[in-house]
From TrEMBL, chains A, B:
InterPro entries, per the entry: Cupin_2, GPI/OXD, RmlC-like_jellyroll, RmlC_Cupin_sf
Pfam families assigned to the protein according to its UniProt record, in alphabetical order: Cupin_2
Superkingdom as given in the UniProt entry: Bacteria
PANTHER family on file: OXALATE-BINDING PROTEIN, SLL1358 PROTEIN
GO molecular function, one term: metal ion binding
Span of domain Cupin type-2: 63-133
Protein name: Cupin
Keywords: Metal-binding
Length: 169, 169
């Protein structure tokens, strides 16, 4: 493969599809990258990774399903990454510093870097399905006001987790 | 306002909402930033700007409606920006270097920087509605294989258009 092809994000995904049925994508195998104590709290959350399938690198797009009782994440905010969600099905509860709000299909919310800590909970008896978008600005970190956790984005794009005092999990 | 508040993208949007009904957002007043000859070809395209309402800066999210006969854009590709679309309603035709494909609700497509030139057409008699996402990587430019047009992203985030030979429109 030529250097030009190697450098080309499209060229490096030789089999990238033109368009896909989002619900037909196989869910991500690893349910969460959190330390085990917190990963256990992500039961019932299922992510279909969409953007990466097309070779996108600047932001990620997932189709995420929350079974009844499941959460989108621990409540958190990023220092560099902007995030956005669009509800496709069901009625998630959005929890931010401002309180709780029930959402429904066609509603959206955005979470700018440095803004309010947030997450979604499915407090209903039906599935919730939404699109989530987040960019991949280098040097990002995340704080978790309700949990003894901090995260730093490593140079390879993986999250590195510590206690709030900096000691490793 | 303190410097810290000025520097904080969330703090600078004092009235940013927590969540909104996407379809209730007032459409963007300016239909297109293209030179007039090309802007006229964007009739029937209506964009509701969603991400900016929440103070997002790293990427944009629009809820876009194409009336029958309308196009998403001129067929183009970016050098730096990744793009993604998710169909919510109707059946747009996706046109890329690979040909034509009819999409339907629940389908998505991604267009990595440097990848295939692309756009959507509404060749049906019903509206098409989709979400579009694109990042704002500095130094972006766009080329338009079917038209005598080039675009460079200016330092203020505005698009600067020229003919392919570099002369201004």
């Amino acid at each position: 493969m030529s250097k030009a092809a190697t450098d080309n994000p499209a060229g490096s995904i030789a089999s990238a599809p033109v368009a896909i049925e989002a619900a037909g994508v196989v869910p991500r195998a690893k349910p969460s990258s959190y330390p085990a104590l917190f990963a256990a709290r992500m039961a019932g959350r299922e992510k279909r990774v969409l953007g990466d399938l097309f070779g996108l690198r600047n932001f990620g797009v997932n189709l995420t399903r929350l079974a009844p009782g499941a959460a989108s994440s621990l409540r958190h905010r990023h220092t560099k990454q902007d995030e956005f969600i669009f509800v496709l099905d069901g009625e998630p509860t959005l929890i931010t510093d401002a309180g709780k709000e029930s959402l429904h299909p066609g509603m959206c919310a955005g979470f700018p870097a440095g803004g309010a800590a947030h997450h979604l909970l499915n407090e209903t008896s039906a599935d919730v399905i939404y699109l989530e978008i987040g960019d991949r600005t280098p040097g990002d970190s995340a704080d978790y006001p309700d949990d003894d956790l901090r995260a730093e984005l490593g140079p390879g794009g993986q999250w590195l987790y510590t206690h709030k005092d900096g000691s490793p999990w």
